[in-house]
Amino acid sequence: MEKQVWLFTEGRKEDRMLLGSKGANLCEMTSLELPVPFGFILTTRVCADYARIGRLPHGVMEEVWAAIREIEQRHQARFGDASNPLLVSVRSGAPVSMPGMMDTVLNLGLNDSIARLWAESSGNPRFVYDAYRRFIQMYGDVVEGLGSEPFEEILEEYKRSRSLKSDLDLNAEDLKVIASRFREIHTPPDDPREQLERSIEAVFRSWNNNRAKRYRRIHDIPESLGTGVIVQAMVYGNRSLNSGTGVAFTRNPATGDRVFYGEYLMNAEGEDVVAGIRTPEPLETLQRDLPDLYAQLYRMQQILEMHYRDMQDLEFTIEEGKLWMLQTRTGKRTPKAAVKIAVDMVSEGLIKEREALKRIDPNQMDYFLHPMIDSKADRDVLAKGLPASPGAATGRVVFSADDAEAWAARGEDVILVRRETTPEDIHGMKAAQGLLTALGGMTSHAAVVARGMGKCCIAGCGEITVDAAGKRFTTESGASIAEGEVITLDGTTGEVMPGTVPTVSAQADPDFQTVLSWADRYRRLRVRANAETPEDTTKARELGAEGIGLCRTEHMFFDAERIDVVRAMILADSPELRQRHLDRLRNFQKSDMRQLFEIMSGFPVTVRLLDPPLHEFLPQEEKELRALAGRLSMDPQAVMQRAAELEEVNPMLGFRGCRLSVAQPEITRMQVDAILSAALEARKAGAEAQPEIMIPLTVARSELDTVMALVRETAEHVFERSGERIEYQLGTMMETPRACVRAGVFAEVAEFFSFGTNDLTQMTYGFSRDDVGKFLPAYLEQKVLENDPFTVLDQRGVGALIEVAVQEARKVNPELHVGICGEHGGEPRSIRFCHETGFDYVSCSPYRVPIARIAAAQALL
Ligand code: PEP
Ligand code: MG
Question: Which atom of ligand 1 is the closest one to the Cα of 756?
Fold first, then answer.
């Protein structure tokens, strides 16, 4: 039968899927002979079996008891023994870290009589009763599902009645009384073996609690992974004043600086540091107070970073002056730290460029493209906290996760202000621009989660007092900020400021530029931008775009001073009048296009012929139509009638795309004239213009032939008129299923294909792009679909059509240039698909260009 329980000596870090990452890393540390409290792991397969059959599979507990005997031997203590009891912790550990989402039981193995005898024999009754009351509470919370509140209430009430400030003020007798009051709420089973079996089951169950499920949904973690359960000998950071516990990073996770960095609390259990209940001390204090111990810890972090060749996030415990390592994992880091660590580790010779590049999360790189507080801005500081996650955020203050979500849904930027955050707050943290907490350190829940999300966060801001019920916070300086007021956070300095403060971009960060230059060295895919204004085009060049992959000419029509000319053209009742308006539009388009060719000199500019249905240019309301008639000196009745004629039942499937060119060739003639005249003018001005004319929404070869002939004939007119020629490419968008199926015959004439995956997804699924919001959330919620197909390219359906199209087309024309210009062109997983399918380029919005450059390199690596 398959092994269901693995000792720490039996696994390695590569066994992450089976043992969970925490468990696999405990095995790895054990194999490195670091001081790890001994233990074992029940595999993620047991988790799946448990979920399926509703109980632990046969034989598991026999393996557990054998493994317990191994711990007993190594730790010289006996499980269930009263004079020298072995206590264990029972923790979760999934293949992907899900901090704080699942349950833990500590100090397992105690009951009334063991506690009493051990309190006597150990000579440390305070510690024993502290461990015991914690166990009763955790068992009640996790196994019995009672929550922790009833226990917290008893504890608080007890301290209040005796005027005690902190848990540290409780003596052995106090803790004994508290333990017995806890037992009035519930009593765990007396038999430690039963305690263990039931706790293991409870931790497996916690894989499916709502918190964990929500976390998996947000972070795209598959449901099928399951968690391992780790059972490990307890070591006690709360044993005495000579004991403690802490967390550390081998490098600074906020800035990436190469300094050993962390915090700890003496006389405390691990949860106390992370929960932010007491504010921890920095490691510098440990170096001063316990230099030998600090030196040992320093050595361990060096060993671990060298071994893993990546920044590690460590947990340690000191028990009576002895150091124990409880966890190591690859540390979460801010985008700034991610690129700095990658670049530094390459120059330190720890890793190769290719490896460094693979470690960058392209989606995290958004940070460099978004603002930071301008160093020259005036700073009116309300309060200062810990700089837990850098960047800047401005928004209206809200005091609950639900409010954050609700306000954000209304389009408001919000800052979530909490005393501290818990995993229950995740949805609000996701919705907020930034987070501010009064309690907790750099490794508190708020700090860790915000860094993971790449969000600005200030934690441990002790200068503020949060009144969540009264929806306001006050500062030591006497300011009072109510719900809805605007504040700005500087996550890089920890400063909270009133109102909106000017920001600048981190785009020029030298490490970021280094990473981008690596990406450019490795990638095969070219990256272009979707842009139509000079501003966007300039930005796109700045961010490394190698051309424009989609210029939507209709956006040039919407400009305020032109829209009425467009409308007049649409409404014109004679060919002569229509031509007059088209001539004016031609001038507008020509001057716009000329600018784009000049900015993109030396790079291709793909200009798409008019695509949307004409009625989209007309106002909707009768009042506005009448006003328009007035401005154009037309009969209001005639205007309204023409508008009514243009209305369609299914406009997305209606009179749009190249259908406009077939039915109203004069618009296409005007556009082609404008594009090529602009290219000629730009060339005259010294630019190297590379125009590409793109026909949208093609469905048939005959249709393509018709429009291509129209374009070529117009081009010849332009060349004759101006007495000079310019090279141009003529191709089509591929955005209907029929076009994909007929790609082979399209490729006989088209010079390039650009997949318009927005429309292609719409038409493949039959999901209206404009109406999916009504049902897609339910599809995602119920996992009917894994992803929004308009965000992440559906490789099995839409992708299959694309693959067929590219294969058939390349059979006919192996040189055919192929790109993508739908929204998917900036999405890393979709970019990888484009790479693998043999595309030449992707085109995306300017701000996604750097992300696409990195994703394109990763696709190749
Ligand atoms: C597309 O359909 O993918 C596309 C790029 O065109 P648009 O979004 O303008 O319809
Ligand atoms: Mg389209």
Answer: 3
Residue 843: beta bridge partners?
528
Name the burial class of residue 62, with classes exposed (0-12), middle (13-18) and buried (19+) by CB atoms within 10 angstroms of its CB: exposed
Q: Is the CB of 611 under 6 A from ligand 1?
A: yes
Task: Compute, in angstroms, the gap from residue 475 CA to the centroid of ligand 2.
Answer: 52
Distances (CA, A) of 855 to 398, 544, 850, 858: 36, 14, 9, 5
Q: Which residues surround ligand 2, an ion (CB under 5 A)?
A: 735, 756, 759
Q: How far is the CA of 755 from the centre of ligand 1 (A)?
A: 9
Q: What is the pLDDT of residue 62?
A: 97
* Closest by Cα among 255, 316, 254 to 280: 316
Q: For residue range 522-580, list pLDDT tens digits in order.
A: 999 999 999 988 988 998 999 999 999 999 998 888 776 788 999 999 999 899 999 99
Give CA separation, 564 vs 534, 569, 619, 627, 637, in Å.
Answer: 22, 8, 10, 11, 18
Run of H or E including 29? helix 21-31
Q: What is the pLDDT of residues 408-444, one digit of tens each?
A: 999 999 999 999 888 778 889 989 999 999 987 766 7
SS in 3 state form for 276-320?
CCCCCEEHHHHHHHCHHHHHHHHHHHHHHHHHHCCCEEEEEEEEC
Contact indicator for 443, 245 with CB cutoff of 8 Å: no
Taking 70 as the threshold, does the pLDDT of residue 163 lie above it?
A: yes
Contact 748, 813 (CB under 8 A): yes
**Which two structure tokens, joined as six digits, stand for 37?**
């409290």
Using the predicted structure, report yes or no on whether residue 90 has a pLDDT greater than 70.
yes
Beta pairing, strands 383-384 & 434-437: unpaired
Average pLDDT value over all residues in the chain? 93
- CB of 545 within 8 A of CB of 825? no
Which ligand sits nearest to residue 819's alpha carbon? 1
- What three-state secondary structure class fits 264? strand
pLDDT tens-digit series, residues 316-359: 999 999 999 999 999 999 899 999 999 999 999 999 999 999 99
With 0-12 CB in 10 A as exposed, 13-18 as middle and 19+ as buried, what is 130?
A: buried
